[in-house]
């Protein structure tokens, strides 16, 4: 009978979570590299290049791929002949592993979990608890699958119950464009079919743990209905032209993974969950011989990419920016930002709203007049870092505050990831402001452009506090210009037409 030591299990969880914070799975690196090599859209190709460069930097520097280091999801298969030398329960051991991983002094990870989710939403400070799914199975081993799921992609999860005669493919193609680019494509789609509502969602999440192998399926052809669906969805989703970061291009998904389960004759439950450009998952087996060993990928897996010196980009001094200057920028234009900008996201915006509604002044140092705000929740720095990985968060979550910020604070520009909604775009146009997009999934690369950071207000909010960053040539793209033109509308529309004209 296999005997699993408590410490081996806990340390394996901790080591695996550290491992996936800075190593992309090899299958993802290879698939993204191939997509980058064949991409014809300059904007999408540049976005994928930044993601690949960031990925290599993180592998070399052992720092997080993304500032959102994820909610931990654990799938555990416990052999029924396994015994434990432990005084903690299974969930307690998993959470202790999470606690160790996210507080590792050499690679601090961002704590994103909040308790009292419908109330105070207080950060638990150590990223616990994990979401744990457990099965008892025959055997003498413990099989562990771990994922660190970012909020940007998790928030785009979708579920429906179709009529049995309805088309699953049509539902996916109708639903996916409405998900926007906040899930940071190119990534994977996990689809669960059948069972009950909760079973379909679980199937979709489990499907995302599988390796990318659509290229092999395309070579040998489908063997069953699930293979046929994967191939059909892969081709038709990419034909939508959404592209990397929603900018328009040939590749939106690198693979489509599907799991199914028998269901009621009257039902067709379908769940869809995307994985983002910061795909993080790993699996290992414990057999009583000690903690898990994880082999890092070879650096040869990454392409050598030179991002260039910014030739052709507009260089902007944020410390002397004016509304008249930003009115000359055009959607799709590349910008290099230098100077000072403030940070803030959901919780900070809510506090600002409360202060303004009460007629109270903003905290000292919080002056948005003729300034830009960066939607970011950075990782804490280690060593001599100014700030840890600091990529953009999904801008659409701030849409409800956009009119307030532009109309009442003097703000003239915003930096985030993904598209803006119709109301936010109208507000941007009305006030002659601008929205800039940084690449999601390139957080460590972005952090290298940040040369200074200081706390300004709301320190109790942790990663959601308002800081002032000093940046030097931070790369961004004009996503919504002062005239209201959005590249997240024009780009996919243009590439949908181009893809339709490509030879079959």
TrEMBL record:
UniProt-listed Enzyme Commission number(s): 4.2.1.2
Iron found in the keyword field: yes
Reaction catalyzed: (S)-malate = fumarate + H2O
Top-level lineage group: Bacteria
A biological process from GO: generation of precursor metabolites and energy
Domain Fe-S hydro-lyase tartrate dehydratase alpha-type catalytic: 11-284
GO MF term list: 4 iron, 4 sulfur cluster binding; fumarate hydratase activity; metal ion binding
UniProt entry keywords in alphabetical sequence: 4Fe-4S, Iron, Iron-sulfur, Lyase, Metal-binding
Required co-factors: [4Fe-4S] cluster
Database matches in InterPro entries: Fe-S_hydro-lyase_TtdA-typ_cat, Fe-S_hydro-lyase_TtdB-typ_cat, Fe-S_hydroAse_TtdB_cat_sf, Fe_dep_fumarate_hydratase
Pfam families the UniProt entry points to: Fumerase, Fumerase_C
Domain Fe-S hydro-lyase tartrate dehydratase beta-type catalytic intervals: 288-490
Annotated transmembrane regions: none
Enzyme class per UniProt: lyase
Subunit structure: Homodimer.
Chain's role: Catalyzes the reversible hydration of fumarate to (S)-malate.
UniProt family annotation: Belongs to the class-I fumarase family.
Name recorded for this polypeptide: Fumarate hydratase class I
High-level lineage: Bacteria, Pseudomonadati, Pseudomonadota, Gammaproteobacteria, Chromatiales
């Amino acid at each position: 009978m296999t005997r699993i030591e408590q410490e081996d299990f806990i340390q394996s969880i901790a080591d695996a979570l550290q491992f996936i914070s800075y190593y992309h799975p090899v299958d993802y690196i290879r698939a993204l590299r191939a997509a980058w090599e064949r991409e014809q859209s300059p904007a999408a190709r540049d976005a994928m290049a930044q993601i690949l460069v960031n990925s290599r930097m993180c592998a070399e520097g052992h720092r997080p791929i993304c500032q959102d280091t994820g909610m931990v999801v654990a799938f555990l298969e416990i052999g029924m002949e396994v015994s434990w030398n432990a005084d903690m329960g299974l969930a307690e051991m998993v959470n202790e592993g999470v606690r160790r991983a996210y507080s590792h002094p050499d690679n601090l990870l961002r704590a994103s979990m909040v308790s009292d989710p419908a109330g105070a939403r207080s950060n638990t400070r150590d990223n616990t608890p994990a979401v744990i799914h457990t099965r008892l199975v025959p055997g003498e081993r413990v099989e562990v699958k771990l994922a660190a799921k970012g909020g940007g992609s998790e928030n785009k999860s979708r579920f429906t119950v179709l009529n049995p005669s309805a088309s699953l493919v049509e539902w996916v193609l109708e639903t996916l464009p409405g998900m926007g680019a906040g899930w940071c494509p190119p990534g994977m789609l996990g689809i669960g079919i059948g069972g009950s509502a909760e079973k379909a969602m679980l199937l979709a999440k489990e499907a995302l743990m599988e390796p990318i192998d659509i290229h092999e399926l395309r070579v040998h052809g489908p063997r069953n209905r699930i293979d046929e669906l994967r191939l059909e969805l892969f081709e038709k989703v990419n034909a939508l032209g959404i592209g990397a970061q929603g900018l328009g291009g040939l590749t939106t998904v690198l693979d489509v993974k599907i799991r199914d389960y028998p269901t009621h004759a009257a039902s067709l439950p379908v769940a869809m969950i995307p994985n983002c450009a910061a795909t993080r998952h790993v699996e290992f087996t414990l057999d009583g011989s000690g903690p898990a060993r994880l082999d890092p990928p070879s650096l040869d897996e990454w392409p050598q990419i030179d991002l260039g010196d910014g030739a052709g980009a507009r260089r902007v001094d944020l410390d002397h920016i004016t509304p008249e200057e930003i009115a000359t920028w055009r959607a799709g234009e590349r910008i290099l930002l230098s100077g000072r900008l403030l940070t803030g996201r959901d919780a900070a915006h809510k506090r600002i709203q409360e202060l303004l509604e009460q007629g109270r002044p903003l905290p000292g140092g919080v002056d948005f007049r003729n300034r830009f705000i960066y939607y970011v929740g950075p990782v804490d720095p280690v060593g001599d870092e100014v700030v840890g990985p600091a990529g953009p968060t999904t801008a659409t979550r701030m849409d409800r505050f956009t009119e307030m910020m532009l109309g009442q604070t003097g703000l003239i520009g915003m930096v985030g990831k993904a598209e803006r909604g119709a109301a936010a775009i109208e507000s941007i146009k009305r006030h002659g402001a601008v929205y800039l997009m940084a690449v999601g999934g390139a957080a460590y690369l972005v952090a290298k452009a940040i040369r200074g950071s200081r706390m300004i207000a709301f320190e109790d909010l942790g990663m959601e506090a308002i800081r002032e960053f000093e940046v030097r040539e931070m790369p961004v793209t004009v996503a919504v210009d002062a005239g209201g033109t959005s590249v997240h509308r024009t780009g996919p529309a243009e590439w949908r037409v181009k893809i339709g004209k490509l030879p079959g």
